[in-house]
Design a protein that fits this description.
The protein has one domain: Aminopeptidase (3-Layer(aba) Sandwich), CATH 3.40.630.70. It has helices spanning 13-21, 55-63, 74-82, 95-107, 149-164, 176-179, 188-200, and strands at 25-28, 35-38, 43-45, 67-70, 110-117, 120-130, 133-141, 168-172, 184-186. It is 34% helix and 24% strand.
Length: 217
């Protein structure tokens, strides 16, 4: 099993997929550029059968403020997620993370949801699909035009995962933002049991209106 102590700093798509399948994920340390592997205990998930959509967000969705697409602008999304923010001036998404996840996207493993105002990308999220698990990585919203855009993308992601038959949505850490959607925490043993069961059901991801993609590690 990959771990922070026995893995080299260089990432590869194969190493990242192996890590996810074993319940760990990489993050860069913005202070020194090193890469570490994490397996939070407890681990946060969004129950796909119990996601709560706040009423104000339901109104935003009904109003059609954003046009939502899937896998149309992955590189734009991951670069926006990596950009400094007032609350987070340093990012755990460095050039190695961007390069490897962009490669995973081209291989059919990593996916993005994008929110647009006209022709401008204003919000989005990305993650990795393996079997019946989606590992959510990061999201962003333009503070001027993208307010609630990433939340709309999250709702659309959940709808898509349910339609595809996914059973697990990993969000890694509980935050106030995710708590509003019904985020819960599992201890490591419970998460690993759910993870193994979800991966074992085989490939679940398919492009909206398209065929199932091969997303089994």
């Amino acid at each position: 099993m990959p771990s922070p102590s026995d893995q080299p700093s260089a990432l590869s798509p194969e190493l990242v997929l192996e890590g996810y399948a074993r319940g760990i994920f990489p993050m860069a340390d913005p202070t020194d550029g090193s890469l570490d592997w994490y397996s939070p205990d407890p681990r946060a998930i969004l129950p796909l059968d119990g996601v709560h959509v706040p009423r104000s967000l339901q109104r935003t969705i009904r109003a059609g403020r954003f046009r939502v697409t899937v896998d149309l602008e992955f590189e734009g999304v991951i670069h926006a997620c990596a950009a400094p923010r007032p609350s987070e001036p340093e990012s755990w998404i460095d050039h190695q993370i961007i390069d490897v996840f962009t490669c995973l996207h081209r291989m059919g493993w990593a996916h993005s949801f994008e929110a647009w105002c006209g022709d401008q990308l204003v919000a989005g999220l990305y993650g990795v699909a393996i079997g019946g698990v989606f590992f959510g990585e990061s999201m962003f919203s333009d503070p001027d035009r993208g307010r609630d855009g990433s939340k709309v993308c999250l709702v659309r992601l959940v709808e898509h995962l349910v339609a595809c038959g996914f059973t697990l949505l990993d969000v890694q850490f509980r935050t106030d933002h995710l708590q509003r959607f019904g985020c819960i925490e599992l201890d490591r043993d419970a998460f690993m049991l759910r993870l193994g069961q979800a991966i074992a059901i085989g490939p679940r991801w398919r492009a909206p209106g398209g065929e199932t993609c091969d997303s089994t590690a």
